[in-house]
Amino acid sequence: MRLKVFFFFILSGLFLNIPSAHGQQKFIPPIVITDYNNGTLTNSLGGISGGKEELPGTLFPTAIPDEGYTKGSCGYSLQLDFNVEKLGEYAFYWMKLGKELSGKDKATATLDLTKYNYLSFWIKGAQEEGDMKIEIHQDVDNNGIFVFGKDITGYAYANAFLKKGMVTKEWQKVTIPLKNFTKITDWSKALELVFVFENKAGNTKGTVYIDDILFGYRPSNVLDAVKAQPIKAPVEPSFTVNGLNAKKCLAFTGVTTLAIKAESVNDNPFIESVRFEYSVDKGVNWKTVGYDYDIGKKIYKVEWQPDNSRDLYNYQVRAVASDIQGNEKVTNTLVECGVRPITDDEFLSLVERKAFEFFKDHQNPVTGLFYDTSGGGDASIASTGFGIAAFCVGAERGWIDKKEAKRRISLALDTFLPKGAETEPAAEGKYGFFYHFLNHHTAKRAGKSEISTVDTAILVAGALTAGEYFGQDVKAKAEDIYKRVEWEKFLCKEKGGYYNCYSMGWSPERGFLESYWDYYTDEVVLITLLAIGSPAHPAPPEVFYAWARNKDAYKGGKPFIYSWHGSLFSYQYANIWFNFQGIADKQGVNWFENSTNATLANRQFCVDNADKFKGFGPNMWGITSMSRPEGYTMHFGTPPTGNGEPEYDDTVSPTGPAGSIVFTPYLSLSALKYMYVNYPKLWGQYGFRDSVNLEKSWYASVYYGIGEAMILLPVENFRSGFLWKNFMKNEFVKQALLKAGFAKVKPNKGAQK
Amino acid sequence: MKKTMLMMILVSCTLFLGPLAVWADNQTPEGSTAEKAAAVKFDEELSRMIHADSDAVIIKIAEEAVAKCKAYDDFEKFASGLKNMTAERPGFSHIAALYYAIAKTRMDELSYLSQKNDIESGRLYMSVNDSYRNEALAYLEKALNSSKSKDLILDAYLLKFLATKDEFQPQAAEAFLDDMATKISKYSDDSVLNKQQLARMADEFANKGLANYALKLKVAYAQKVDPKSAQETLEDIKKDADKNFAQGNMKAAAATYDAYITAESLYLKGDAMAAKVMEIAEKYFGANRYRDARKYYESFAENYPDSKVIDYCKYKTALCCYYEKDYTNAIARFEDFLSTYKNSIWFDRAFETAGRIYFCEFPKDNAIAGLQKLIDNYYRKNTGDFAYILVALLRYSDKEYAKALESLKKVDMNSVYSYAADTIAADIKDIKNGSNPSYSFGSKDSYKMWEPGKPITVEIVPMEAGDANAWLKGSGKGEDKKLEVTYTDSGAAQITVKPLAKVRFGLSTLVDEDRFSEYLQDKEDLSRLPKKVKDDDEKDLISLQWTSEGGKFADERQVRDRVWQAPTEPGAYKVSVLADDFGLVRSPDKGTRKDPAKEMSLIINVKAQGDQAL
């Protein structure tokens, strides 16, 4: 579960021995580099980290939420899978001790450690391991980049600092005085922290877990002491909840301050922290609520917002004092509590907001482009279109200041419009269309990316939504982007199978791609309607009827026009923007109902195959575009499909039910609740992870902009109709529907379950 | 939020958000949940309830009333009527039943909304879900506090469970389920009556599609009663698991076995419990579900490391990996077994299987290195010699005849493999002399290991043949594509190909348990049979005999996979395979046992170019 932890100090503080008026010493707490509880490999300094994934010698790092593998059974820890089986092999995990420096590729800030004198972390192995080398890299030439041989490497081996003399299956505290890193000459320029597994140090192949990495300070007599002064357990009667003594609280909810009196560093120089823990199984297992490392005072506090959305029914709280050697003293149960569970609406709000935070955290501050994934790399124009719409939702919901949302959206829109006297926008493209992937710094084409019709359409749809929501200059910019798209340039006018169909893209190397939007998918609905409604380059209405529409049913369900791969997302994209309820095209197709029936088929397929696939079931469905253990796929789907060969494995994605929540409200809501409650690992920093494969116990670690959008935007439509309301206010959008021949029909009454 | 306000918002939401704005038409959607007028009256039901003489009658009337509800407002009206009745008659003799009825109505109302699949109902459901469930729980609590009926109390707990099951605190549901188990265990002093109630409530769960909770209830019940009753309940659970297993409901079977083992371990200890775990492992192994089997073997090994049959357990675990095609893991486990259980009766089999894995599944150099490691570490007469033979065969197949002979020379002349060694050596001698080998690789026949007593099932799988040479070299499998088989009116399988098309015929159901057996050719000379077959009366051999009416096979080897080429002339041709039992299994009373032969044919329609054919 996610725990909201507030440390009562800031990371940049110094840890000084300053004599106070009473002869006592004033302390400033340590720098907690990371506890991995943000679920990523980026530390609290903003420094990224990674492994050595190329032979010889490999190491794969993962932030894992597995209880039992995280210190305190809480949040996340670092899992290092290494393989150095052969003689002479080594592999390592590196961590930058500062943020990326803007304008300097791969350069990062250094960390000033002059006021600290020890490094500490917790470690355990899946089995007993050899010795682990710890390196600290000093940036000699101040360029922010480590170069072996040029910059300095100080190192120490962990076993010498482990009580058991080696990494075992139990958690052990490692505390290494920095003086052991003898080669470091300037502690103000710490650039990287590295964990190395060497074959020569007795390592072969294994897994090691690491948690709670920090730098601290203690006088040398304390640091070097073989035996610590015994610490005392926190004082039970002093425990308070929100300032009040409490033994029982029945409705423990909201942000709560837990406080307790314990030894300060003046009482015991070995003490390092006090933490609070809770148990939901009557004291059998305890999970960490949060730490207070501010040992200069006697009252330790942790703020906690009990997660009333998952496993807290009745629980107990206790406090634990720890010293720098890893010794601990625990109180008895301090209080027993219960919480009010969240409501469905609160849950959906949480789901939405978490997805929104992905977009908030993944926009380039210069170009306004949104990253394709949480894994860094390039921006995508689809993610940008969705991100713009997400900011509108965020502004409306109050998750971001409306002015700030407008500023950020304008920043993105400006990138797609020529500035001043220039004729081309910063974002690279052709005929008003743009490359699918763009360098997020420069907005130039990324790699061999193609100019993409569908992704440009998503960008335009997002822009138009923002235009209607904010009006005025945002509307003008959005419609300018729309007007610049020369739809006819990508339209096939040659008589034949692709007549009046749009090419999927163009690239300098290949020219127009040979693939055409010649078969139904909700994407082609979006493309063709936007093309028809174009204010400057309108396409003939016939383009809406130029692609193939094949209809079939899945096992006695209602028939529907199916897509080529049968992927659930291919029934969702246009319906994010267009509200097709109650209207049908000239051929009498109600595209809302069509997607409803397709969703029911997708779910039914998972129900029917629940015995064959561990991960399928009435509440475990959603075969769609998603990541899977072998990589990302756009081709997974369920029958009927145009290609006649639906592809799937045990993987399902929450984006499936979430993206279809307007079509199957109860079924989608139930699935999301089920996934959330029963598979906590499917929930991370940005809410639902992209997918899960239960057969392989695999959970996607990367978040995708298009996946987050398929959670946030449809859920918002379900709750308020916000996207539909704004997008369809646009005059050109209305015209597109009229020109394409849409007319009113009986509103959707819902497909049969 | 008051209901009317909620309705107004929902209706205005629909009007405002819908695409109707395009046509400026403010028509209210038809048939919406909000609009349907509540035309149903419940006066009669409410009146009958007042005069009812039992809880059961009241609940039955309530069910009738709920069945009349056709819209959200109908439920509202009935629930309101019930609530008014309880407020007006606090001393009513069956007030608990009324409380229960209110709760049930609320739950049915939510169920009604969940069945409707439109946005409006979805929003309505979401807006009332939390409050209605809480209201239901509150009324159920009142029912529990005021009821004297044990049956009603059990029903109330069931409803409490259902009200919380799919929500955000599964512990609450589990707690209610546990409470229910407690109430059942104390239903009466008669354990038979209690078990009847347990069965009734378990059926209630099962009928709602919640068989897994029926299982949990039984497990919880078992933990609350005396050991004898608990044991009986757990045996019932195991029977359920066996039934699911027999019916092929493997997901349910797995869940039930898991629950059974967990619960049973509280009562049975030591060998008795170990035997239960082993029984399930063996059951899965026998059903070729090796992954499931391995789970139980591993559980056995972890929990009963001092068992007398731990060697067997470890051997079977390795064997599971082998059958799962996880060869690296299988090798690791077999080698661990060989180093740990040198005196085990399974030692020779483990050695041979490890050797076979190296021989069949690893690249030549790795295989030879692996086999050499087996010889170096675990050599014994016969088993070690088997490894020497395999090394020789690998050398032989790469035409490294001198090295092959070196390996053969190491075979103990008194071992059962000496004859095989001599045969291969004779082959090499023939080859060196420029003549065809007399034995082994010149053989045209192939014999397969087979389970006796099982009907021989052979299915021909036709594939578009890739590079036949690559196939013979053992690397062309991936290039073949399966061909579509259709059936004639008489049910005969057929395919359609073009003239001169090359088709590979494989046998899908024939398990190649011992590739080494392909080396053998003389069924009369039992001394040449693999030790496994010769000594083991559990296995048999079958021979394969392919025939073709038209077209031709690429070679004459009677192996499992044959490449066949269609003739130039269009027409219908036939390829058949006869799988015949050697009858090597010797039954003590009846002499040799021989299963009936099985013949399978496939019609090949050869059509000229331009027709739809391969």
Largest sheet of chain B: 6 strands, mixed
How is the CATH topology of the largest domain in chain A named? Glycosyltransferase
Supply the CATH architecture of the largest domain in chain A: Alpha/alpha barrel
Whole-number count of domains of chain A: 3
Task: Give the helix proportion of chain A (percent range).
Answer: 10-25%
Relative helix content of chain B:
55-70%
Number of helices of chain B: 24
The overall pLDDT average of chain B reads 80
Flag low-confidence runs of chain A: 1-24, 748-753
Radius of gyration of chain A: 28 Å
β content of chain A, as a range? Answer: 15-25%
Could you give the distance between the termini of chain A?
33 Å
CATH class of the largest domain in chain A: Mainly Alpha
Short recap of the structure:
The complex is a heterodimer of chains A (753) and B (614). With 753 residues, chain A is an alpha+beta fold.
Give the topology:
The complex is a heterodimer of chains A (753) and B (614).
Chain A lengths: L17 E2 L5 E2 L4 E4 L14 E3 L6 E7 L12 E7 L6 E7 L21 E8 L6 E7 L13 E6 L14 E6 L12 E9 L6 E12 L3 H4 L11 E7 L2 E2 L2 E2 L6 E6 L9 E9 L7 E6 L6 E6 L9 E10 L4 E3 L4 E4 L5 H18 L17 E2 H17 L4 H14 L13 E2 L2 E3 L1 E2 L12 E2 H18 L1 H13 L20 E3 L3 E2 L9 H12 L17 E2 L7 E2 L11 H5 L5 E2 L6 H18 L17 E3 L2 E3 L17 E2 L2 H5 L5 H14 L4 E2 L2 E2 L3 E2 L4 E2 L5 H16 L1 H6 L3 H9 L3 E2 L9
Parallel strand pairs in A: 16-23
Antiparallel strand pairs in A: 1-2, 3-13, 4-7, 5-6, 6-13, 7-12, 8-11, 8-13, 9-10, 9-12, 14-15, 14-17, 17-20, 18-19, 18-21, 21-22, 21-23, 24-27, 25-26, 26-28, 28-29, 29-30, 31-32, 33-41, 34-35, 36-39, 37-38, 39-40
Helix pairs in contact in A: 2-3, 2-12, 3-4, 3-5, 3-12, 4-6, 5-6, 5-7, 7-14
Chain B lengths: L2 H15 L2 H4 L19 H8 L4 H14 L3 H17 L6 H21 L3 H28 L3 H16 L4 H16 L5 H17 L3 H12 L4 H20 L3 H15 L5 H17 L3 H14 L6 H14 L3 H14 L6 H15 L2 H15 L4 H15 L3 H9 L8 H15 L14 E4 L9 E5 L3 H5 L8 E2 L3 E2 L5 E5 L4 E6 L23 H5 L4 E10 L2 E2 L8 E4 L5 E11 L3 E3 L3 E3 L4 E9 L8
Parallel strand pairs in B: 5-13
Antiparallel strand pairs in B: 1-7, 2-3, 2-6, 4-5, 6-9, 7-10, 8-9, 10-13, 11-12
